[in-house]
Amino acid sequence: MGAGHDHHHASVANAAHQHRGRLWAAFGVLATLMVVEGVAAFHTGSLALLSDAGHMFTDVLGIGMALAAITATRRATGDPQRTFGLYRLEVLAALANAVLLSGVAVYVVIEAIGRFGDPHEVLTGPMLAVAVLGLLANLVAFALLRAGARESINLQGAYLEVLGDLLGSLGVIGAAVLITATDWWWADPLVAVAIGVFILPRTWRLGRAAVRILVQAAPEHLQVTAVHDRLATVPGVVEVHDLHVWTLTSGMEVASAHLIMAPGAEVGAVLTAARTALREDFRIEHATLQIEPGAAPGACGSIEW
Hints:
Largest sheet: 3 strands, mixed
């Protein structure tokens, strides 16, 4: 089973590694536009543009952490002291992204609320030009990250940030056009608040998913009772206990269990059938299964945790 375990981990790591070139390209595009938007926000006095630049900063930081996590994961896979490599770095990076993005969103909302009582005039020409450039940059980054977001929680975090920033750029463009046409200066803080409100629920969901993995909760799409009942139906198994199911990192579900065999059952046949059931019914590729003879109940020294 060890060879299959290593092969599965390597395949997921390689899948993430294949997207490294796309990550670097997205990183370069967004980093350049982040600087442009930041400078333009102070020049124009636009809070909406500043919020978009702040959001873009978290995009750049998030993609940078994704790149660092992918590099560290690949370098650590041969370390005998790291029996699971550094796959959890990906989850930690995703959680950090969620925290940072939430902080930016809260700051923007608070600052925007303060401006409703005293709206500031902004230079709409430069604001509009930079917002259009930001939109184009986010479209490029969105296309680069879309495929990888299906395979990695870390890449999903960067993808969600770019998606939110893309919509934010549309909001800044709309605010600039509205102010130019009507002199309604409240459009700038209003769009800033809208960006913040849009960001928060998505980042909280990402953070929640990362926390579930870090506390080793069972994957949401798997019912532990269903796994237990399926293992109990394996020919030659009379009882299942000490069952644990958790996620190591994106796409890596892991299980461990103790199986009590019926008298006369073949160990090899039971193990093969149990592993096949876990793989085909629940997509659990790595399982550590302890076989116990039915004549010696409790011999495993079951641990209650």
